[in-house]
Amino acid sequence: MSENQSSFALPAALASRARALGTATLYEASGLPCAVDPQVRPVWPGAFIAAPAYPLVCSPGDNLAIHIAMERVPRGSALVVGTSNFLAGYWGEVLTVAAEAAGVTGLIIDGGVRDVAAIAARCFPVFARGISVRGTVKASAPSVGKPMIFAGAAVAAGDLVVADDDGVVFIPSAEIERTITAGEARAEKEAAMMQRIAQGESTLELMGLTQWRHNA
Q1: Exposed / middle / buried, residue 113 (Cβ in 10 Å: 0-12, 13-18, 19+)
Q2: What is the CATH number of the domain that holds 59?
Q3: Which ranges does the record mark as transmembrane (predicted)?
Q4: Is residue 196 part of a domain?
């Protein structure tokens, strides 16, 4: 029996709140250095992830750690894969099918993937630094399930990873509810501001920046 029978899924209501806010609002509301290198991008437009993170580290050009993680990752989690920014095809259609069977909700990787047309056709959310046809070996697994620094941001198992067209953020597990609540307050404030802008007020007025009207 594989080890990933336990479930770690984000409550549906929490995922829905995170989706409504998006990464930009969550990042600003968190007040934390939680944003990933912006070069990590969705491989198909509209991809979205809001799930507990399951981090792992691959040696450059070696994807053994991913195969090991597939037997350990709690269902409902998203894989966060560090590769030291090495571009190779660590992930493709076969691993996508395996991930779906294991209950994995998405992939964030600072390396490369391939078979992107098949991944997009399956609507499996993948965020990667690049695309590469180069294959990988299976010889080492530096870290599976342990905390790490991924593309400039700290992540540990159970942290909330949210990824969309704007980028990727990691919210520490202890900060999830606070960040989402603060994000909703921020979104409400911005909605009121945009309504006033539509009625003719300027951003300089609303942000208290009118002293700069004649200084530029």
Answers
A1: buried
A2: 3.50.30.40
A3: none
A4: no
Is there a domain that residue 166 lies in? yes
Residue 192 domain-assigned (yes or no): no
Surface-to-core class of residue 145, CB atoms within 10 Å of its CB (0-12 exposed, 13-18 middle, 19+ buried):
middle
Host domain of residue 64:
12-174
Tell whether pTM > 0.85: yes
114 labelled ligand-binding = yes
When divided into structural domains, the chain yields a total of: 1
**DSSP code for 6:** S
- In a domain? residue 195: no
pLDDT at position 86? 95
Report whether 190 belongs to an annotated binding site: no
- Least confident segment among 55-59, 66-70, 140-144, 211-215: 211-215
Q: Is the pLDDT of residue 5 over 70?
A: no
HSE-up of 117 (CA within 13 Å, CB side)?
1
- Tokens 């911005």 map to which residue? 190
162 labelled binding-site residue: no
Task: Report residue 60 as tokens.
Answer: 């450059």
